[in-house]
Amino acid sequence: MKIPILYEIEHFVWIIKKRFFKYYIEKCKNFLCIKFNCFIPEYSKIKNNVKFDHPYGIVIGHGVRFGKNCVVYQNVTIGLDTRKHLDSYADNIPKIGDNVTIYAGAVVVGNIVIGNNSVIAANAVVTCDIPDNTMWGGVPAKLIKNFSDKKIDCKENNV
Question: Is 85 one of the catalytic residues?
Fold first, then answer.
């Protein structure tokens, strides 16, 4: 898909601070984002091989951190919880681990960490940290399946 490629180029240009290139790349990205109705800012930290399957309606907030090999489906919202006024901007950003799959319509908002090799089911609203090797779904998200032998304890973040 062309949106992650444009994100990578825009993020690189944002780092080197070349306004001339940034303007034209931003115009191309804005065209694709309007066409696909999605928002992915250059301030997000997206690592290698993150895939946006069916990239319609995806909203990713500023500063969200993705691990490697993640898959995000349509109508997913990942970002800040604007109801919380924290001293540090970084304290309110979701962090997504490696090999995570987030299915259609899921919402991940606030200071939430999603562990490696986890799956978020369709239309789930994540309100607590997700441990490694688990599958979560529902409103609010509850443990559906544990792929490891560890005991899971969810302490809600009051989203």
Answer: no
